[in-house]
């Protein structure tokens, strides 16, 4: 007899499961396009030079210690992160209507924000894009949301944002529903609404009294320019919207395992901030109590030291340029091979991922026959490509789509 008898085995988390399958694969040629982490041309993880230099400086700084940080986090980091996403000249900052809360990476910011909305504001209906990042629904359900619904995002036939259905789904959402929007570089589709489409989305959310929850996990990574990538969020702020924004520094600083994130909060009236922060302190106290300092110190120093910030800008530009080059290389090779189907979306999409349109059966074939590992919805991490393997991957896709017909 055990207290734990009868607990069913949960399904594996696909992205980690597929990554493990890749690592255990013994074939001499294999390609990993699964996990959402940057890889160099050599297929290796990258510690940004500016991050390494800053870490060394922190390690040598004998004035620092390992005392607890405040519950809401490292002051300088919270401010720098908020300024990064809203822009230093944001009206919300100038009018004292915004603040940051340090969280455990993007996931922790989503979780703290969701739990706050559910438990303090009694907002328990959320809408996530269909498709979306594999963890959104789980986070919101575990945080106390009783309904986590979909809004249409993707037009599978035409491989574009299905703006008409998206807007219709938002129109139909009950008021006070929480709408989760990807700030840039939508995961998994790699396709963002245009500026005009964002304006329409904002108009519906405002008119229907819905609540905006932005998730920005790839700021700077999408276009190479952090300001450009925050356009939609800043537009919503300019329209006077209240919102929370989960920010991750996993991808744009390469700090995946340090769990550095921020929840930026924008309100209409500074008078509500004291209540908000005190209740948020309780949410965090009951979760992780105090956040870790190492990553927050790095991000703070880099963002607030002009020379370091410039180095960081160069690093994100070099990452996003390499991704663009790999998109072009994959498309060129597929075009050269005259691979059946249309593939222009590979270079139209931005950020780390491409939503290839490959079916689950084609994905199985790619893994079984060619040892090219990707997610079953056809999402590939473009960073897994490099000049040495891109032709191999294109040929594998070409053989697969000829052998396994798509029924779309
Ligand atoms: C859309 C989206 N949101 C949030 C996250 C959170 O990532 P992390 O918790 O590692 O910062 C990710 C990571 O892949 C993501 O793709």
UniProtKB/TrEMBL annotation:
Its EC number is 2.6.1.1. InterPro entries: Aminotransferase_I/II_large, Asp_trans, NHTrfase_class1_PyrdxlP-BS, PyrdxlP-dep_Trfase, PyrdxlP-dep_Trfase_major, PyrdxlP-dep_Trfase_small. One of its GO terms (molecular function) is L-aspartate:2-oxoglutarate aminotransferase activity. One of its GO terms (biological process) is aspartate biosynthetic process. Residues 30-397 form the Aminotransferase class I/classII large domain. CDD domains: AAT_like (cd00609). In eukaryotes there are cytoplasmic, mitochondrial and chloroplastic isozymes. This is Aspartate aminotransferase. It comes from Caenorhabditis remanei (Caenorhabditis vulgaris).
């Amino acid at each position: 007899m055990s207290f734990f008898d009868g607990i069913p085995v949960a399904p594996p988390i696909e992205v980690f499961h597929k990554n493990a399958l890749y690592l255990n694969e013994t074939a001499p040629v294999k390609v990993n396009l699964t996990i959402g982490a940057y890889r160099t041309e050599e297929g290796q993880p990258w510690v940004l030079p500016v991050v390494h230099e800053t870490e060394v400086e922190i390690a040598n700084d004998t004035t620092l210690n390992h005392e607890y940080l405040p519950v809401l986090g490292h002051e300088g980091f919270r401010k720098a992160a908020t300024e990064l996403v809203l822009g230093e000249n944001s009206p919300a900052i100038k009018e004292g209507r915004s603040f940051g809360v340090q969280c455990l990476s993007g996931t922790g910011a989503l979780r703290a924000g969701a739990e706050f909305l559910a438990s303090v504001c009694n907002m328990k209906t959320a809408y996530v894009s269909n498709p979306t990042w594999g963890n959104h629904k789980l986070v919101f359900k575990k945080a106390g949301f009783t309904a986590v619904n979909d809004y249409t995002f993707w037009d599978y036939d035409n491989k574009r944002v299905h703006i008409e259905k998206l807007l219709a789904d938002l129109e139909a959402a009950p008021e006070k529903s929480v709408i989760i929007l990807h700030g840039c570089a939508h995961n998994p589709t790699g396709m963002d609404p245009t500026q005009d489409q964002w304006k329409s989305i904002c108009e519906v959310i405002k008119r229907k009294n819905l609540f905006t929850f932005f998730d920005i996990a790839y700021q700077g990574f999408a276009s190479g320019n952090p300001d450009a990538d925050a356009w939609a969020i800043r537009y919503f702020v300019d329209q006077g919207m209240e919102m929370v924004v989960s920010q991750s520094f996993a991808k744009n600083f390469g700090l995946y395992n340090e769990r550095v994130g921020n929840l930026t909060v924008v309100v209409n009236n500074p008078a509500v901030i004291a209540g908000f922060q005190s209740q948020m302190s309780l949410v965090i106290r009951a979760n992780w109590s105090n956040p870790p300092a190492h990553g927050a110190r790095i991000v703070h120093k880099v963002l607030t030291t002009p020379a370091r910030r410039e180095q960081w800008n160069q690093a994100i530009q070099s990452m996003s340029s390499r991704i663009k080059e790999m998109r072009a290389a994959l498309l060129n090779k597929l075009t050269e091979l005259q691979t059946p189907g249309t593939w222009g979306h590979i270079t139209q999409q931005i950020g780390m991922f491409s939503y290839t349109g490959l079916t689950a059966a084609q994905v199985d074939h790619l893994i079984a026959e060619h040892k090219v590992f990707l997610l079953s919805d056809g999402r590939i991490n473009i960073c897994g490509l490099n000049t040495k393997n891109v032709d191999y991957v294109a040929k594998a896709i070409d053989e697969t789509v000829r052998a396994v017909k798509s029924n779309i």
